[in-house]
Every structure is written in structure tokens, then in C-alpha cells.
Amino acid sequence: MPVSSSIQKILALVADDLRQVDATIAQRLDSGVPLVGEVARYIISSGGKRLRPVLLLLACGALGYKGEQRFNLAAVVEFIHTATLLHDDVVDESTLRRGRSTANEVFGNPASVLVGDFLYSRAFQMMVDSNNMRVMQILADATNVIAEGEVLQLMNIHNATLDEAAYLHVIRSKTAKLFEASAHLGAVLADSGAAMEAACVEYGRSLGTAFQIIDDVLDYDGDSHEMGKNLGDDLREGKATLPLIIAMQRSRAEEAAVVRRAVEEGSAQDMEAIISIVRQSGALQGAREVAARQAESAIRAAALLPANPHSQSMIELATQLLQRRT
Question: Which helix (H) or strand (E) is 263 found in, with range?
Fold first, then answer.
């Protein structure tokens, strides 16, 4: 996401909180095994947007929670997210993330998998510190759903018949679930009641879904240098993302066959032709329209929260998401 003036304003609102979160992360990465800290710090310090901690902090601010647990749980969701990245890059055989070599490329697959396991287990140690069974339930359920989403995605590799509904189910499990949990935790910490919890759940789920759709759009409409990853990686992995699904639906039979074959074979050999097909079919605009509907759902949900700078920033974050180019 480009660091626009609006995004800078949102980050400035929680800047002091994020510094506390970073201090908590640094403290809880300590381990008697040097490689654990080395690998974990490598990926955590690689320029991520900290969107999930930001979301938790914004929800806490919107609902008036100022307790210390917001720092602890913001670090927890970042650890869970980082663990998924470590495992994802091994499964996907990725070599580039956020503009530099992936951890598995630098340290090898075994170290990446095992440090991912460490981060998961450390996150569970930290969530126990909250002494709140609902917090633990939300995070345990989210972690389980994310793992199911990973398996669902694996099952659908090279599946060129995947439709929009099945695609959305995968990304809501794999990506949006942690967004949802992050916002939900803010409401639970604030003890804000069922209505506010439901609004935060809807906000996080919709925002996370829109975020992943835009991420998939940028695989065919972005700049690899700005994005910090190789364009076409999803196609090489045989993933039928929403732009490809829509392109196969809207293109002529021979063009749809080119895309279908690339998904089934996991090949980016015809990448230039496929990018042309995706763009000319209107698939990018079609996918952005689906993302826009999700962002609008997030905005409506955030509008139900008390009106203040934090809830306004949640609305602005969903608005700015649609302008994302990296």
C-alpha cells in the first residue's frame, strides 16, 4: 500500500502504540537458540505494513480501550501472521518478499518451518498472558481456520474450474480471518458488547477480503520493484485467483484456454499473453469491483462504531485500500 498522506495520518494516530508493540515483539523474540531470533527478526524487520496490529490498535482506540494488553495482542497477531508467511514461502517455493530474498531462500526450508512453529507457540504463550478465555478462543479459532485455508488453497492448486465463491472462501479463511480476529480482539478487550463485536468482525473480514483481492489484482497490474515480489508468482504456483477466474469467464474460448492451461500446468511461460488477456477482458476492473463491494461493507461496519479519530481512520483505511498499487 503506498504511503499516502491519508495512510501516514492513520499511522501517526497509532505511532506511539506501534512503538510499544515493536518493543514487545523485540522482547518476546528472545530465545536461547540464536537461529530462532535471527530468522524471526529477518522477516519481521523486512518492511511489512503491520496492518493487523494497526487494525487491532484502531479498534481499541475507537472503543476506548487503553490497557496494556493491546500491545501484547497486537504483537501476537503479528507473530501469527509472520509464522504464516514463513510457512507460505516454503510451500510456494517463493524467493522474493517485500523486495528481498525470502527467509527460506536465505536460511533454508527447515529453519523457516521450525521458526514459524516457534512463532506460533510463542504467540500462544503470549495470549495466555491476557488471562481472557474469549481472547484465547478467538485467536485459537483464527489460527485453525487459517491453517484450513492453507490446505484449501493447496487442494485447489492447478484447479482451473475454481469459481468466485470458492475463491472467496479460501481467501476469507487464509487471509481475512486474521484481519477479522484483530478487529474483534479490540472489541473484546474494550468489553464493548455484542453489537460492537459484530461490527468489528464484519469490518475485519471485509477489509481482509478486499485486501487479498487487490493483492491478487496487482499480480497482473502492478510493478514488481514497487511490490517487492515477482509478478506472476501466483500463476507459476498454479493458483486460479479472481482476475484469472473472471478472465476465463469473459474471454473468447481460445483465450480462456490459454489461461486455463497456464493454471493447470503452473506455468508463466505465456505471461505476457495472459496479462493481455486479463486486461482486455476487463477482469482487473471486475475484480476491483468485487473488492470495492467488500470495502464498502467494511466502511458501513466501521460507521457503526463511536465517532472518533480512530473509527474515522478505520473508514479511511478501507477507502485507501482501493487505491493500493503496491
Answer: helix 253-265
